[in-house]
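Re: beginner question about structure tokens

> Can someone show what the tokenized structure looks like for a real chain? I only ever see the sequence side.

Sure, here's an example I had lying around. Input first:
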Amino acid sequence: MRKAEPSSLPDSLAGELWALVRLYRGELVFPVGGVPEAGAEAAVVLGAQVLRGGRPSGTLRARVVHAAQLYVAGKVRLVIPTGGVGEHPPSEAEVMARILRRAGVPEKAILPEVKARNTRESAQYVGAMANERELRSLVIVTDPLHCVRTAGAFRAEGLSVWVSPVYDSPMWRERWPRLVQFLREATAIIWYRIRRKAESHSRR
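And the corresponding structure tokens:
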């Protein structure tokens, strides 16, 4: 397996879509583990659905367990769960923090971000937290197909990140959810590119 390094996805629409296709086909676009040899300062866990009664969805739980394992193994010093309130309270970040504590991550090592409503806002809010705390090495934890768009969103905020895909997520392991997520991510990548281009023009 090749040495883990910051995400080097091509900074283009075609490059990101091609990476998504390769991932869907099962190619190793991102190395399993995805953490620098010397470790990283923080793992950023992207939110997912919270069910009625504040219960985590299978996708959310898989992401958090993956991040907790990175912490327990000494590969990251902090865990930043990010995600606001969706259809059911509490916030995704609060539910993730609860699971992290039960998995052995101490309170002082958990920095919840509870406002983000989508991937783009997670990148913006976590980027601000990273700059404030002078965190230089971040590892993104999310489903494999979500990694492409997430890495692009963080790059748009000026952050260079490693990516640690969660191959245990039901969104990856189950055939139909994987196809649905592939189509959704392809559409979202196109939309993000169009939106960033429009915002760039508006600033001129």
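Each token stands for a local structural state, so reading them left to right follows the chain. The mean pLDDT is 90.
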